[in-house]
Write the structure tokens for this entry.
Amino acid sequence: MLKVFITDDHELYLEGLVLLLSKQPGIEVTGSALSGKELLDKLPAVDADILLLDVHLPDTNEEELLTKIKAIRPDIKILYLTIMRGTRYIHKLIRHDIDGYLLKNIGIEEFVKALHTVAEGNKYFSKEINIIDTDQDFRNTITIEDKKIDEILSKREIEVLTLICKEYSNSEIAEKLFLSVSTVETHRKNLIAKLGVNNTVGLVKFALKNNLIE
């Protein structure tokens, strides 16, 4: 029996994931946590082969959390399940010898395959993620099939991204889209987080690489 412990800060999603995996033959969900702190509190007594973990937990830094997990339970496999597609996150986590990285849009068959692959001592990364990019200028961004863009970004986020790439300021974007400046700032922060880039330059590189602007 493959035993899994899950940590995700979205309670409804976490409950759904526990239910989904509990129905899969040969897989047992032995526990869950809603925060990094809760995970670390429970970890010494956790009975699991794999820790399924979201990248962005608001109460902790991902690298700090990984270091503490490894110190407490060096035996446990760590598999990330997240919306974060940017290779900046992945390269940073790989340095801590994670066992895999999955995107939340995967199907259940691939999900189960990934769990078993990791349990057997192998690595598993979603095929949509380009871990190695030989182009230094685009090292921290990725290419995504056109049909996948709208799965990552909302229509409004794409509008904001396009205007950012045209060098409009937050106030100018707010005026054009009939939004408040604070809302535009929030969209900008969300874009940076979702795409795994560092700044506006990273947003522009992503847009160029994925043909969102000319």
About this structure: The chain has two domains: 2-125, 136-209. The first strand starts at residue 2 and ends at 7. The chain has a mean pLDDT of 84. The radius of gyration is 19 Å.
